[in-house]
Write a structure and sequence with these properties.
homotetramer; 10 helices; Arc Repressor Mutant, subunit A; elongated; DNA-binding; 2 domains
DNA sequence: GATGAATGAGCATTCATTCAT
DNA sequence: TATGAATGAATGCTCATTCAT
């Protein structure tokens, strides 16, 4: 649905820029070039619109993460690729990144059932688990390791976006190496 | 000022629970047991109240971080202590942690001048810089390294608070070791 | 027209239950199983739909009132029958009764020209007039008498519907007798 | 409270003229010469405002009804007075009458607990009960009789207000006599 | 005729802020 | 200092109505 997409895109952009509460539905309507009432054909409420937007981008991230993963390659290369995938996606889709972080760190996150929100990390947990089983990675909790790896990616993206230290490739490789040294066997 | 403190505490608690926009000034007044108008004797506006609250807790974190740091100890022990200090503070002061994260990940963060907000990491940057200079840590960007270390602490606290994997001490030591292995020379 | 009837019936039911303003056209459409736009093929507006519904049931009541009236019977029996007719119709068609009362007691009643609305009582006025002329009823204003009689019927139906004192037959006969004693010569 | 009274009066007037849903809160505010938000200091919601308005006038009616009742007078005179009291009050306070009728005949009436709403008739029931016990009135259900008497008053007021047959005193006496003849022993 | 997506004016309600006391 | 009643602009949402198909 074209209008639904327009609404979702306008919401993403505006919330990223202004925050949840500084983004009135009327402004979303204006930017999406639909009438205010139209939004309510596609979404039950502002709350539900935002939740759906989050679910959409959460799933998108999950699908991007393992793109191009090839189990025949050396695990270290695969690890480097996963890190790069997310870094590239987030830095090229700043709004998505900032929206996800804003959402995940606000109390509205609790509107999402615990299980569903835990599942965000599932693909990454599976991925590190493989590395653990094959002896490439430390034999520690996969849940913990996945969080640490993902957290490092987020840290690097934030540093990049802060403008304080833009990530050229060499620096990114350093960050990946640092992460790898932490988790490798 | 007793009332000012009451207002700040009420604000912290309510924003942590409800979020910025779901926390009306009237509710803050009620919880702080002052009249609505009284808040405006101590703060110019809601915005300024929140900003001041953030500044307060940001500085508190900076002071907690290096508590008990003793430059005569082995650097690795000092590193372990910094990590533990923050972990302990955040898990024992959940509201502060959640408030800082909520604030730092929302667009209102931009209200704070870039420099000031970068300075949050300054003590940690100095700390890792020492490790680099003495050859204990990798010779890479201190800014990057500080972010990675702090990001790992945040990751561990969030995992703990999610209830998905409570951190007993052994697990915490694992997380510290993983971080250390990443940054050490 | 089948759909038109469905719309009228849905409107009656919903307005009786929810009131005029708590009955959106979309809800009427849903219950009548037609599209929202379809209603506007049969009715000009919500206002006109409601007015037509009222006219419909007002006329229905007029036709029910004198059903089975036989001028060869004793007038007192005929009086009793008119009373019973309306009581029976209203208690067996609760929605119609409640809708008429709701409509007649709301300011929208003024949308109907005075004359037309006065004509609701016309058949009853004629009926009591006969009783007056033949000396069965008091020689007082027929308009007044008709209103008193109809008012008594309404009172009895409301008491019945309130559940506070269900009308079995004996009680109904008492009510009729009381009314009769008031108006008879 | 001066403003509260102004709000109640404005609401009464406007609802009587326009109906519940055609009376926006902004219009109430305007007529009461207060800000829109001020209404919500005194009332929780539009619904509660209307309910309170109804309760207020319901109680007022109950207190007016028996005004000047003197148990040493002949019962018939007392009966005539009760009838006259209500007729006079309603015709001199048209808005109150129309509001009560509009409210009582709309589905919102169900917001009021059954018992409370039944109690509206209680004073009148007690009054007719006295007449029954002393043998002045028919020995029939007091509940039924009270409803019939009150219904007659309402009928007379409505006829008067319709403009179709203004009630001068002689006519009013006729109406009272008709009612009395119906209920007297 | 029939549909239902789309419109946008209108509504109830909230809330940051002010100010007379 | 402190109060809390009062303000009124702003917000999320509804709903009668239209119109392209």
């Amino acid at each position: 649905m074209d209008k639904k997409t327009a609404i979702l895109e306008a919401t993403l952009e505006l919330i990223t820029k202004n925050g949840f509460h500084a983004t009135p539905m009327s402004m979303v309507a204006q930017h999406a070039k639909v009438a205010a009432g139209t939004i309510y054909h596609y979404f039950d409420s502002k709350e539900q619109l935002i939740d759906e937007l989050y679910a959409l981008h959460r799933d998108k991230v999950a699908s991007v993460m393992l793109q191009g993963d090839d189990s025949s390659k050396p695990y270290k290369d695969r690890f480097r690729q996963v890190f790069s995938n997310l870094f590239a996606y987030y830095t090229q889709n700043t709004d998505q990144f900032l929206f996800i972080e804003q959402y995940a760190n606000s109390p509205i996150m609790n509107r999402i059932p615990r299980e569903e929100s835990a599942s965000f990390y599932q693909p990454l947990i599976e991925f590190v688990r493989k590395g653990i089983h094959t002896g490439q990675l430390k034999d520690i909790s996969a849940k913990l390791m996945a969080r640490l790896v993902y957290g490092n990616i987020v840290s690097v993206v934030k540093l990049h976006l802060s403008g304080d230290l833009p990530m050229e490739n060499a620096l990114l490789q350093t960050a990946i190496a640092t992460t790898w040294d932490g988790v490798r066997q």
